[in-house]
Write a structure and sequence with these properties.
The complex is a heterodimer of chains A (139) and B (681).
Chain A lengths: L1 H31 E6 L14 E15 L4 E7 L6 E6 L12 E9 L2 E10 L16
Parallel strand pairs in A: 1-2, 4-6
Antiparallel strand pairs in A: 2-3, 2-5, 3-4, 5-6
Chain B lengths: L1 H28 L2 H30 L6 H6 L6 H6 L5 H22 L7 H21 L25 H15 L1 H12 L6 H31 L10 H26 L3 H23 L8 H4 L1 H24 L15 H33 L2 E4 L1 H21 L10 H26 L2 H31 L5 H11 L1 H25 L2 E7 L4 E4 L2 E12 L3 E12 L2 E6 L2 E5 L6 E3 L1 E4 L5 E10 L10 E9 L3 H19 L34
The chains are: A alpha/beta (139), B alpha+beta (681).
Chain lengths: 139, 681
């Protein structure tokens, strides 16, 4: 039947399309994936200064130093018990919610013990569950 | 009062349980009485949920801080509009809001299809199960009426970032969209359960599907717009997990809107269509879940939050149940036709579906990758915006090209010669645009995107003019414009779709231009100083500090000059709420051109109120987004197109629209007033 003969190229076309998309996903994954470390894991890993990585930790509030004229933002990330600290340099505007953050995820490069962040993801108590407990208990 | 709310929610839980049980049992035994009990129970769920919502609203508006939810999301100084909107600002409230919309939709469906045929009670049963799920979560895990045990003097207040018109637009439309897909899903599952292979479920739910799709589109775009004006990082889309979660059901729903046309016309792709709507519904629940839990922040949150466990069970149940039903009934759903040729509109719809599914899959994979990689290898690997841009960019481009080809090929079997003849003019327009864009910008990707977008617009206009001309052959008294308008009214679904496509093409140009040619710079200026940016001169005039009891606002004034003439004025602000560390930026946006935005953020300052001159300066982060307003314009065009497809059509006078809704309607779309093979006549 003519119909069957003509269905063939459609099936092949779809298969090619699906194959191309899978290739696109796989190829892009290897090029764009970024390893994600916590502060505890970082020492001794020997991350290359040219490899983009993500680091998460909590803000050491005392360390925040912001010079808006740069703008340059410097602060330290610390792990839960404060035993590991990592200085961060971020050449951009200070995120509004930095001081009230619970966790900060920085993406960038580690060079000579300082982390040069390209972007900061600041997690608040939560976008919606803001100010969960604070301000309530005392008064 | 809070106890009343808790009690009402509990009653809603009991009634949905009763309704589901009665409907299930009644269906099994064919017992009319039981079915009626089931329907009435579901009706009462609606009234109970409305009453519970009224109680929550009352508690919010009267600011009853003994209720944890009220204390967490409002405060005495919160304006009324945001106090009301606090209803859906937090987890428990937004789940009640979901259930409120669902109960409303359920009641509408029950009211519209009153008769106890073998079909409607099953629809009610499926919707009842979804109601039961949300009532369960509200009763046992996330109760908005939970009390604190003491009355704080004031509430914590609403996060200032949420205090924006966006809080009214985005969550409401997003939820109306998410919840809306429950209806076509329920009809599809009912058809499978009752072993029905016809298209009634599609015909009956078409309006629901399109409206839900429009709401979801609005939810996504308004969410982006909200982020753009409020979050102060100058973007509207960041491929953030929560954003992706809202995009996935949109992608599968859009695929569904296209592929049902093949089923209506040709009786094909039946299994595919029920799978798509099931996937869309699943993604809607997943989206609600991802938004409401912190899953993607860490795998470990997964097990901890109890609401997570409920959703996990529901998501698994929906997946397994739908898959079982689809596989079991697949033999019934064999299509009655085969694809007739590679070069036919049907094939282009198929390719369209493959591309949409590819987008949905890639987005899903990229979003879930951190969780999957940690589960498999123990190492967390994330992918960011570059992944999504690299993968989804080319697929979207392919979609645009396809969107341009589609109007030019006929249904069933089209000939190559005809396609070439039809395509020549639009293809020339597209190619010229491509060359001009490449010459002008030197960027291949941008040139292809512009070329493809113009190709879409040209091919739509071409097809439209062709059809208007054919019509003028029969109605020589009509002018071309009038004939085109008549054609549009007569074939409203087709042209509504075309208008949506025009909107998409506009949006594509806006997205590509505002991403590829974004300019960004930071300036620190003393009063009177100027800076050059994106062809404008920015002069810093000074800073005003305004102190109020609840907040201090710093407003900087920038005069925008173009060619030495005053062009506009920008007043970005920084607001410091009293007693909180977190300031809050109000960005200022000026039109930098017809569709361009000049966007200013006040990054920091010293001094103010014209104080000691030497000490005074302010730092601005400036962004320039060319053509970004085409994104919003394209969106409104899309809404217009969707609305036109639904309501813009001429009702043929001969057919009376008084046929009872239960009777399968004649398949209007398969026999349109004038032949479908009008291409190139």
């Amino acid at each position: 039947m003519a119909g069957n003969r003509k269905r063939y190229p459609l099936g092949v076309g779809i298969a090619l399309l699906v194959g191309a998309m899978i290739y696109l996903v796989v190829a892009s994954l290897s090029g764009t994936s970024v390893y994600y470390y916590t502060l505890d894991e970082l020492p001794g890993l020997g991350v290359s200064p040219t490899e983009k990585i993500r680091v998460s930790g909590a803000l050491d509030k005392e360390s925040v130093d912001y010079d808006p004229s740069g703008p340059v933002l410097r602060f330290r990330l610390q792990n839960e018990d404060g035993s590991q600290k990592l200085p961060i340099v971020f050449n951009d505007v200070m995120p509004d919610n930095l001081l009230e953050s619970t966790e900060i995820v920085a993406t960038g490069y580690l060079r000579d013990g300082t982390f040069y962040a390209e972007s900061l993801l600041v997690k608040c108590p939560s976008r919606y569950e803001a100010a969960e407990e604070e301000g309530l208990s005392g008064d | 009062m809070p106890a009343l709310g808790t009690f009402l929610v509990f009653l809603a839980f009991v009634c949905s349980l009763l309704g589901v049980t009665a409907l299930g049992w009644g269906l099994r035994r064919g017992d009319e009485g039981l079915l009626n009990v089931g329907r009435r129970s579901l009706h009462s769920v609606f009234f109970l949920v409305v009453a519970a919502s009224a109680v929550l609203l009352y508690l919010l508006v009267t600011r009853d801080f003994s209720v944890k939810y009220v204390a967490n999301y409002t405060s005495r100084d919160l304006p009324l509009a945001y106090t009301v909107a606090a209803f859906w600002a937090g987890q428990a409230g937004s789940l009640l809001f979901w259930e409120l919309i669902l109960a409303l939709y359920t009641a509408i469906v029950l009211w519209r299809y009153r008769e106890n045929d073998r079909y409607t009670p099953v629809v009610a049963l499926v919707m009842g199960l979804v109601n039961l799920f949300f009532a369960t979560v509200l009763t046992f895990s996330s109760n908005p009426f939970e009390t604190l045990g003491f009355v704080p003097a004031d509430g914590a207040g609403l996060n200032p970032m949420l205090q924006n018109m966006g809080l009214w637009l985005h969550p409401v439309t997003q939820y109306l969209g998410y919840v809306g897909f429950t209806v076509p899903y329920a009809f599809a599952m009912a058809a499978l359960i009752q072993r029905r292979a016809d298209d009634e479920w599609i015909v009956k739910t078409r309006t629901w599907t399109i409206i839900s799709w429009m709401f979801l589109t609005a939810g996504i775009v308004w969410g982006g717009q909200w982020a753009y004006v409020e979050l102060g990082w100058g973007g509207y889309w960041a491929w953030d997990p929560v954003e992706n979660a809202s995009l996935m059901p949109w992608l599968t729903a859009t695929a569904f809107l296209h592929s049902v046309m093949i089923q209506e016309r040709k009786g094909m792709l039946k299994v595919w269509n029920v799978s798509l709507i099931a996937l869309t519904f699943w993604f809607s629940i997943l989206g609600t879940f991802l938004t409401r839990s912190g899953v993607l922040a860490s795998v470990h949150d997964f097990a901890e939050g109890s609401i997570g466990r409920y959703f996990l069970v529901a998501l698994t149940a929906i997946l397994l149940g739908s898959t079982y039903l689809i596989l079991d009934r697949a033999p019934l759903l064999r299509g009655r036709n085969a694809f007739e040729g590679l070069l036919a509109k049907e094939s282009s719809f198929l390719v369209n579906n493959v591309l949409f599914l590819g987008l949905a899959f890639a987005t899903f994979w990229g979003t879930m990758f951190p969780i999957l990689s940690e589960a498999v290898t123990g190492e967390r690997v994330t992918v960011g915006p570059p992944f999504f841009e690299q993968v989804n960019g080319p697929i979207f481009l392919g979609m645009l090209v396809l969107m341009g080809i589609c109007p030019l090929i006929a249904w069933r079997r089209a000939s190559v010669e005809r396609l070439l003849r039809n395509a020549s003019l639009p293809a020339v327009v597209g190619t010229l645009t491509l060359i001009a864009a490449f010459a002008g910008t030197g960027r291949v990707g941008v040139a292809f995107a512009y070329g493809a977008s113009l190709f879409v617009i040209a091919s739509i206009v071409y097809d439209w003019v062709q059809e208007a001309r054919v019509r003028r052959g029969y109605h020589p008294e009509e002018g071309l414009l009038r004939a085109a308008w008549r054609m549009m009214r007569i074939r409203s679904r087709k042209y509504g779709g075309y208008v949506v496509h025009l909107g998409v093409a506009l949006m594509a140009v806006g997205i590509v231009a505002s991403t590829a040619f974004k300019q960004e710079a930071a300036f620190t200026l003393a009063p009177g100083e100027s800076a050059q940016f994106a062809g404008f001169e920015l002069r810093y005039e000074g800073l005003m500090l305004r102190e109020e009891p609840t907040k201090t606002t710093a407003t900087a004034t920038l005069t925008v000059l173009k060619d030495g003439q005053v062009y506009d004025r920008l007043e970005p602000e920084k607001v410091f709420p009293a007693g909180r560390e977190q300031p809050h930026s109000e960005v200022a946006i000026a039109r930098g051109g017809l569709f361009d935005d000049l966007y200013a953020i006040l990054a920091g300052f010293e001094g103010g109120n014209g104080g000691e001159g030497a000490e005074e300066y302010a730092t601005f982060k400036m962004l320039y987004h060319p053509l970004v307003n085409l994104v919003w314009l394209g969106f409104y065009v899309m809404l217009l197109g969707g609305g036109f497809a639904l309501w813009g059509g001429l009702r043929p006078r001969r057919r009376r629209p008084t046929v009872p809704a239960s009777v399968p309607k004649p398949r209007l779309q398969a026999q349109e007033p004038i032949g479908t093979e009008t291409k190139g006549v």
